[in-house]
Specification:
The chain has 33 helices and 33 strands. It is α+β, with helices and mostly antiparallel strands. Strand 27 and strand 28 form a beta hairpin.
Length: 1006
């Protein structure tokens, strides 16, 4: 591509660049002269310096006054040279031979090249290829004098290889003896062009949005349309937007709203502010009136002030609002009908009021209720039973034409068929035929609708709504609302029929009902007693029937609401429950264990409408059973007593030996530390053993929750390793990451313990006891137990190498009190407890055994569908436990413990007050209650027990903070203390860190 400014790296070119200073001087002088002599040239020169604004340097400089006949002196030339050299615009000069003889600093800066670099680059072409020919042609025309000056734009390559947009002004000064060149000025307009492109793109997007907008948008000047988008044309009914241009805005505004439209536009025009959102009416070109919502906004349109309006069609919304209002009125009428129908007494007493309300709201002429019945000759007939008529319509009750009409003869069989299929009858009388048409035409009915009245699943009759003036099109919303009113009427009729039937049969079983010694009741599925006998009232601890009928069964009687849900699910699935065990609350707060047998009473649709049942008090029986189980638990622990005693003796021996050793190694810190650690480990071992014994021995309430079966097995085996004789080897084979089951921890631990003790007894000479865990599919379990419904089960097996069992023995092992042991060696409850506990968890037990070949007990526990996640506590770094300056009251009857605790807390900065018993503690607290921030008390104290101390301290200061310590907390006692206000509990024996952390946490609690 040939360069616009050919420049070669030869001597002439080099000389031309060296001579730019002299040429520039002439140019500056000529420029000054031209500015003084000719305003037009002055204007163009400024334009050459800046296409958009004047150069600050030129604008602010003061040009020395000169006469037109003398040349500018050197001082003036340097002055203007400095201005032009530092101009914001690029300026260059090209002589008659097309040589670049001058290029100012701004030009070189614009292109990014030095003067030397420019000499070799211009020839290669710095004009964009797409612009080069055009620019060359335009500059040549300037040289030729065809165009003395030109203004154009092109893209120029910068040194960093990016393209810059430049606006160029070129003027021919070849004839001027002082310049003899074409002067070219340029300005970088890259950012300006980007802004212009962005503006054009933004305007195009805006126009596209307006054109495609679903909202009607128009612009008007002086009350006439100058722009309308397609949506606006559609709104007004014009074929295209051009049909509205030039028309008056007020032509489409409804006369009632023209003043509002004028005020709206005046506000936008005069005040220049957006008008409020107004609702108006427009007249479309076809003359129809529509509701619209209008907002006016002042805008500039083609440089002139105008008003833009955005219009939204409200016709559909208004129509919807009217429909909703009509629907709401119908629903309100239906609600009123329901309220009247459900009042005590017969529905016939309120039917006229209901029909009047429905007819008035629907604006019909006639509302009637027809009943289907059988005539004495067994023919199905339809008879008018109740009606309401609007003003001006003759009442029809007593009219022979609406007596009991034969269904088929008058076409009502077609009506009943449609309604039995769940639909409605809606028709014009003109479309009827025969007697059906004659019947309704005689009553001046034009159109009608009918909805069925269902009693159970049978059509009792129907409600008819007639328009006596027009061919009305009944909406689905109207008919469904009326269907609801008819359904309520049907339910009320059904209830009355049921009540009548109930009363007629009540005497048949009333005597049996009242004289039964078990509780007999009738209740609703919603949880209300309908009837209950005297034995049931007394069993629940209430004084009379009225108190029981007022109860909410689930809330007031059930201890566990889940039992109510299980009861209802079972009775819905089977239709009855037998010996369903549940725990109830008596009126005095005591718990009642009952066995309930009940059946569901269903209506003709199969819906359960009530429960009839009997419940028997088995509280004493269950208590005896629990006592027997507890005896067996203690018996199980008794069989382990030798092992326990042996283990405790070992622990005590360790403590005594190391304690004696401490006196001789007091001066050896390393050995002393090791000795103390051994004592600490022995104490922890003893504490853990006690915790395990208490876990198995204590009585606890059943509490189901997420349970890690592997962890339970490991805990049991850990204890048995300490207690079982060394002749029995314990093996574990556990599958990792077995899901949690939902279980009661104490029951599962008891099951495992019983099976292990049973296995030990089966191996009197020693053997191998193996505990395994894995997973089993639901199908596998179903092959053994058809009632298994879970998709997966946790499988546990307890295997021994003992004496085994024959088939006869194996068939009775789960029977209560069945035992093969010698008299006095067992109660026979061990395996029955196992069986009962597994069944309580919806699990299964399977036994494999042969004489002399050992036994395997397989346990299967269902895995819940959403198994709780495995919990693994994060281990954080041990931090120094902070102390404090608070005052503590420590109550401990053991002198050594009291002294050690006192020293421990004083070492952490606390003030400590001590008491030896409960009585002393209460007296100390009364005297110093304002100074004491926390009470740390043992639970078992002389004089007054820990719980008594708590109540007495609460009487002195209700806000007292109390922390209890004990070797064992009964669950019931712990719950009572918590309810009484105890903050927390700590298990003995405890480490210094444990007691310090508990106390600090209690003190920090707000």
């Amino acid at each position: 591509m040939r360069s616009v400014f050919p420049l070669c790296a030869n001597s002439d070119a080099s000389r031309s660049l060296r001579d730019t200073t002299e040429v520039g001087t002439c140019l500056y002088g000529k420029a000054i002269y031209e500015m003084k002599a000719n305003k037009k040239i002055k204007s163009r020169f400024r334009r050459a310096s800046s296409t958009k604004q004047k150069s600050p340097a030129v604008r602010q400089s003061k040009v020395p006054k000169r006469t037109s006949n003398r040349k500018p002196d050197l001082k003036d030339a340097k002055y203007f040279k400095t201005l032009i050299e530092n101009s914001a615009d690029a300026i260059g000069c090209i002589d008659a031979d097309r040589r670049l003889v001058y290029l100012n600093l701004s030009a070189r800066r614009m292109l990014g090249y030095t003067k030397k670099e420019l000499a070799g680059i211009v020839e290669s072409g710095i004009i964009h290829p797409n612009d080069s020919d055009r620019i060359t042609n335009e500059i040549q025309r300037v040289f030729a004098g065809v165009n003395p000056e030109v203004v154009t734009r092109c893209r120029v390559r910068h040194k960093d290889q990016t393209w810059r947009s430049v606006e160029i002004y070129a003027r021919n000064f070849l004839a001027d003896p002082q310049v003899k060149a074409v002067v070219v000025s340029g300005r970088d307009v890259t950012e300006q062009m980007k802004a212009e492109d962005a503006l054009q793109e933004s305007e195009a997007r805006y126009r596209a949005l307006v054109e495609l907008s679903p909202e009607a948008i128009a612009i008007h000047e002086d009350g006439k349309f100058v722009y309308v988008n397609p949506a606006g044309a559609r709104l007004i009914g014009a074929a295209n937007p051009e049909d509205l241009i030039g028309r008056s805005v007020l032509d489409i505004v409804h006369p009632d709203y023209r003043d509002i439209a004028k005020s709206r536009d005046q506000l936008a025009n005069q005040q220049g502010s957006e008008g409020p959102l107004l609702e108006e009416k427009f007249i479309r070109l076809d003359g129809s009136v529509i509701d619209v919502e209008v907002v006016a906004i002042p805008v500039s349109f083609k440089g002139r002030h105008a008003v833009q309006v955005v219009v939204r069609d409200l016709t559909d919304r208004k129509r919807t609002e009217e429909t909703l209002q009509h629907r709401d009125a119908i629903l309100e009428a239906v609600g009123y009908a329901a309220e009247q129908f459900l009042k005590p007494g017969s529905w016939q007493e309120s039917i006229q009021d209901v029909l009047n309300t429905l007819g008035t709201i629907l604006d019909v002429g006639w509302v009637a209720i027809f009943e289907k019945s059988l005539s004495p000759v067994r023919r199905a007939t339809i008879g008018l039973r109740h009606e309401w008529v609007n003003e001006g319509i003759t009442p029809k009750i007593g009219n022979l034409e609406f007596g009991d009409l034969e269904i088929t003869e008058y076409g009502f069989d077609r009506w009943l068929k449609v309604m039995n299929e769940g639909s409605f009858v809606r028709t014009f009388v003109k479309d009827m035929v025969g007697k059906e048409r004659a019947l309704f035409e005689g009553q001046h009915v034009v159109s009608l609708a009918a909805v069925p009245v269902l009693v159970g699943s049978l059509t009792w009759g129907f409600m008819t709504f007639a328009d006596c003036q027009s061919e009305r099109k009944w909406s689905d919303a109207e008919l469904y609302a009326l269907r609801f009113a008819a359904d309520i009427l049907g339910a009320v009729i059904e209830r009355q029929q049921y009540e009548f039937a109930l009363k007629s049969t009540e005497q048949k079983y009333r005597m049996l009902f009242e004289e039964s010694r078990d509780g007999v009741y009738i209740s609703t599925p919603e949880g209300k007693f309908v009837d209950i006998n005297l034995a049931g009232i007394q069993m629940l601890g209430y004084r009379n029937e009225e108190e029981v009928l007022a109860l909410d069964i689930e809330r007031d009687l059930y201890v566990d609401e889940n039992q109510r849900a299980l009861f209802q699910r079972a009775i819905e699935e089977q239709g009855y429950v037998k010996d369903f065990e549940l725990t109830l609350k008596r009126a005095d707060g005591k718990k009642l264990t009952a066995l309930e047998t009940a059946s569901a009473v269903r209506d003709s649709n199969g819906k359960t409408v009530m429960y009839r049942g009997i419940f028997r008090d088995v509280t004493l029986q269950r208590q005896l059973e629990q006592d027997l189980i507890q005896v067996h638990k203690m018996e199980s622990l008794g069989t382990l007593a030798a092992g326990i005693a042996h283990d405790f003796n070992n622990i005590l021996s360790i403590i005594l030996v190391y304690n004696s050793l401490n006196q001789r190694i007091a001066n050896d810190p390393l050995k002393l530390s090791q000795s103390i650690a051994a004592i600490h480990e022995a104490v922890q071992r003893g504490a853990n053993l006690v915790k395990q014994i208490l876990t198995f021995a204590r009585k606890t309430e059943v509490h189901f929750g997420p349970f890690d079966i592997n962890l339970a097995i490991r805990d049991v085996v850990k204890m048995l390793n300490e207690m079982f004789p060394k002749t029995i080897n314990l093996n574990l084979h556990l599958v990792d990451e077995i899901p949690f089951i939902t279980a009661d921890a104490t029951q599962i631990q008891q099951v495992l313990l019983n099976l292990c003790v049973n296995a030990r007894d089966a191996m009197p000479g020693g053997g191998i006891l193996t505990l395994e865990s894995d997973m089993a599919s639901g199908r596998t379990v179903q092959t053994m137990f058809a009632e298994a419904v879970a998709s997966e089960y946790v499988h546990i097996s307890v295997k021994d190498t003992g004496i085994g069992m024959d088939e006869t023995t194996r068939s009775h092992i789960f029977d209560p009190f069945f035992t093969t042991k010698e008299k006095g060696k067992g109660t026979g409850l061990g395996l029955s407890v196992v069986y009962g506990a597994v069944k309580n968890h919806d699990g299964f037990v399977h036994v494999e055994s042969e004489p002399s070949r050992g036994s395997i007990f397989h346990l299967y526990f269902p895995i819940p569908k959403k198994s709780p996640p495995l919990y693994s506590p994060e281990k954080g770094e041990e931090k120094e436990i902070p102390g404090g300056s608070e005052t503590l009251l420590i109550i401990e009857d053991e002198d050594a413990i009291r002294s050690n605790i006192e020293s421990l807390f004083e070492s952490k900065g606390y003030r400590v007050i001590t008491a030896r018993d409960g009585g002393e503690a209460v007296e100390l607290y009364k005297k110093k209650k304002d100074d004491i921030q926390l009470v740390l008390s043992d639970l078992g104290l002389p004089t007054l027990s820990g719980d008594q101390v708590l109540f007495l301290l609460k009487a002195v200061n209700p806000a007292v903070k109390v922390l209890f310590a004990s070797g064992y907390f009964e669950p019931e006692t712990k719950n009572e203390l918590t309810r009484a206000g105890a903050l927390d509990f700590i298990q003995k024996p405890y480490t210094p860190d444990e007691i310090l952390r508990k106390v600090r946490k209690a003190l920090d609690r707000s």
